[in-house]
Specification:
With about 100 residues, the chain is mostly helical. The protein has one domain. The protein is about 50% helix and about 10% strand. The protein is built from four helices and three strands; from the N terminus they run H-H-E-H-E-E-H. It has a three-stranded antiparallel β-sheet, covered by helices on one side. Helix 3 packs across helix 4. The chain is globular, with a radius of gyration of 21 Å.
Length: about 100
């Protein structure tokens, strides 16, 4: 039991983000943190590979229809902004589901 408690405590302590600076007199983050959040140097992006051409084309069409910013990378993967992850996941899952139901 003590081992589990120690492990949980260790995970919680190391899991805290040390970069978040909070003034002791106010609950507002420091100006440096606000600036870094307001103006990121590069947008966070992610990508995935869909090798099935039918599903890939369906995903690309749906991304365009729903106005989700996306692009095709040199390695053939489909790139997108991380803020759109939920919508991209939903579109991909629907496309895969439709493909499976038609087989």
């Amino acid at each position: 039991m003590r081992l589990i408690f120690a492990l949980q405590l260790t995970v919680m302590l190391y899991g805290c983000d040390a970069q978040v600076a909070v003034d002791a007199h106010s609950e507002a983050p420091s100006a440096e943190l606000e600036q870094s959040l307001a103006e990121p140097e590069q947008p966070l992006v992610d990508s995935f590979v869909m090798r099935n051409p039918e599903i890939r084309e369906d995903i690309l069409k749906q991304l365009a229809l729903k106005g989700v910013e996306h692009w095709e990378n040199e390695d053939g993967s489909i790139g997108f902004n991380v803020v759109d992850t939920k919508e991209v996941d939903q579109i991909a899952n629907e496309a895969i589901g439709v493909y499976i139901s038609l087989q």
